[in-house]
Amino acid sequence: MIFSSFFDIFEQKSFFFLDSELIKFSSTVVILICSFILYLHHKKTKIERELVAGNILTVDDGSIQRNFPIFGHALSFDFDPVAFFRQLNDFVDHLKQKDPGALYGYHLLGPKPSLFVLSPEGAEAILKSTVHIRKGLFYKLFQDWLGTGLLTSHGKKWKTRRRLLTPAFHKTVLADFVEVMNEKAAKMVDILKEKIKTEKKINMHWPITLCALDIIIQTAMGAESDIQFEENNSYAQAIFDWMELTQIRHKSIWYWPDLIWNLSPIGRRQKKNVTKMHSFTKKIIWERWNHFRELKEELGDDFEATYFAEKCDSRGRMAFLDTLLKSLDRGEIDLEGIREEVDTFMFEGHDTTAAALLWAVQEIGENWEVMKKLHEEVELVFGDSDRPATTGDLDKLTFLEAVMKETLRKFPSVTMFSREFDSDLLVEKGERRFKIPAGAIVTINCYKLHRDETHWKEPEKFDPSRWLDGGSGETRYAYSYFPFSAGPRNCIGQRIRAIISIYFEFFQFANLTNKIILSHLLRNFTWKSTRKTNEIPVLAEIITRPKGGIDIILEEKHA
Length: 559
Ligand code: HEM
Description:
alpha+beta, CATH 1.10.630.10, binds protoporphyrin IX containing FE, heme, oxidoreductase, membrane
């Protein structure tokens, strides 16, 4: 209406008319903008009052973060990702100093309340809830790549997908997984042995990331890949660029509306990343789906028995992509749904593991005593042989397990996860009551909570012995350590462990990958980190990684 009269004015070219219509038009626009600003201001003030009444602490006491009219604290966030993460951790320290018994703090993104958890007790109330399981607004920014797959969906869709996918990594494919992981880790070792012939200092970022990616491509999708030989692999590069741009979008609320984002230069660059990543996974899915259909046509009634014979156990459970293809054949999911889940597993399944391994390599290389103990342990289990590791071998590597647990305590790969509240949550701690209002986004920063001094002695110290017999790790308060999250929306890799442990004491996809890759490294090399861990900037961009990767001086053990 407004726009059509605006164009009419120009067509009629009547200046008298133009004047009066323009005045009408401009006043309408000004009134609309003013009403909107007043509405935002009213909403923001109302929610602020509600948060203070609910015992949620504010960070805007002048010294730490400014609360601007309309925009709230959004304008005080640091743009540099390392500084931004430090800022978030400082908020926790600042508020805990102010009120040691408080469970939650807040800042405002415009009128949107964004809460953060101050203590493990505060995390427990949220993670245990079976009602507040909807992921925070931030996860919408993942949807251009992951769609609404398991990580990002909620409600009925999430429940159906979780049921569909949980049995996907079952015990009968465990042996295949271990075989593949050994093969890929051995490939990485060969590549590194070649590298150290010409380079003294090795950056472990790409060798480890590509090895983890190689493993997930084959174990979850059943596809062969040569990705480890392509250091500048365009798929992996697209993933990293996507993460960086998503992080920028996260901190810049003006980029949140799709229209603005899609028109911006970095939004267009992001589109190219997404197209590249989608075509990579679609190709894998199509190849396997075509094979599935050809075989079905060829074998008729015998198809299921033949296709799944090697993959099925007596309960009829299958490998990841096969499970999805069978569901597709039954009409329980469509091709787009499979693409969403494949992308989710490609994303969650390699980068989380790679980040944890990088930090582990760094800590081992800095702590000579730890390296020595690990060498002794692998030598005891494998001797001088170069045979592949079995699940039995991995079970015996108890110190290595402790090293991985301690690494994930200090550097949980997924540092921050959040929930968006559809209804209020009342949390009680002793005499005190805290109210999280409906509409709030609550972020749990487990990097900070894993270093809570009330639960961990010398939390900044890398001390794997906490996890050995008698150590504090084993007797800890459950919610002081949750690198795989906890409750109904925990990491599916962890949940699988509980189901599979009926057959095997030890099974966990991520843990298995970590232990196999690290044991291969330890059997072949010794190394020294070139930087001190506490001097490495922590880049918490969706996945928490060391900025600049990990540089080590790597030497062959039996050269
Ligand atoms: C060191 C390795 C890993 C860590 C630390 C880790 C951590 C996590 C965390 C903290 C969450 C919850 C995220 C949230 O609430 O937003 C999560 C969810 C998830 N993880 Fe992992 N993960 C790891 C490896 C894996 C692997 C190997 C896979 C698959 C092969 C995987 C698949 C998933 C999926 C699908 C979800 C979403 C579950 C749901 O919402 O129902 N993760 N992971």
